[in-house]
Amino acid sequence: MTDTGRQRQANEDSLFVKEPLFVVADGMGGAQAGEVASMTAVQVFENGLLPGDPQQSLETSIALANRTIHDRAHEDAALAGMGTTITAASVDGERDAVVIGHVGDSRAYRLRDGILQRLTRDHSLVEEMRRRGQITEQQAEDHPQRSIITRALGPEPEVLADIQFVPSEPGDLFLLCSDGLTTMLDDERIRDLMIGSSSLDAATRALIDEANRAGGRDNITVILFQVEDPARPIPDRDGPTLITPASGHRRAKRAAASADGRAGGGPRTGAILARAAIALAVVTVIAGGLFYASRQAFFLGTDDAGRVALYRGVPYELPFGVSLYQERYSTAIQTNDLSPARQDSVTGHSLRSRSDATSLIEDIESREGI
Length: 370
Ligand code: CA
Description:
Order of helices and strands: EEEHHEEEEEHHEEHHHEHHHEEEHH
Strand content: 15-25%
CATH class of the largest domain: Alpha Beta
Bound molecules: calcium ion
Number of helices: 12
Radius of gyration: 23 Å
Shape: elongated
Structural class: alpha+beta
CATH topology of the largest domain: Phosphatase 2c, domain 1
Helix content: 25-40%
């Protein structure tokens, strides 16, 4: 089920459900481009996966979706820069597993024995910071920059997808969703709604309704499917819970132990993350279309020689010295020579569109008589 939510005019999410394939895509881009991107992504799955190894086939389909979106974005100026997330699941009955392919910040979860385990890792700036221990899980959930993703289908001709093989047992319940669900509800609330529902449909409805009650700030897409043994179908449920006794083994402990290990926070973490939070707080998100920030966003800053310069990307560095920005142009003007207000517009590192950033820099140059 997919829902526009309470605040957006359009629904840029797409979904595909045809057993054994399930796909969620969350499109981003100006005008209708996001819808085109997510729809293009799911259409690739309409004819199923290629025969052969399911992991390889899923990877091939995601690569094809990426290339198709990338090509369309280059052929049509109205679609330039469009992109989408993808989270795709293929049930592999032969091997009692679900193969999951993933790019972006949509998610896959598995509910087993009452424990909801997140299976995918968000490709987002905030998740990178959380993994480095710079911010806590709680801060990540409330972070204003959480919509900035670091990987998407479309912006580049090639994309690296996370492909994983998840063993499944009868009774396992899988959830695929867009971030319109997970930005509104935390994992505990999602779990409670799933186990408190009497059917897959009821659980799907409950999740979407609750995300809307919490504000519905974004499009919400939810896919739920349950794995069963064809020889012992799970009976129609009229009880209060979706958790079935069908999975014979108690794996709760193991699942809990492996559920998304977080970085430990030592005594010094507080100061470091406070600085990180302040550094990021000065970044202003361009409403709406900012998704692949290192490509789409620009900011003004001061280069090594103290001059006002134009950068593409976001003012942030990933581990191993990977910076998310590039210098595009530097002026002959020293930032220190500007008026205090002007200096603020340079040192604040606010994210801007290309045209905003270039007009600001032109403005600075013309006032300084260059
Ligand atoms: Ca979204």
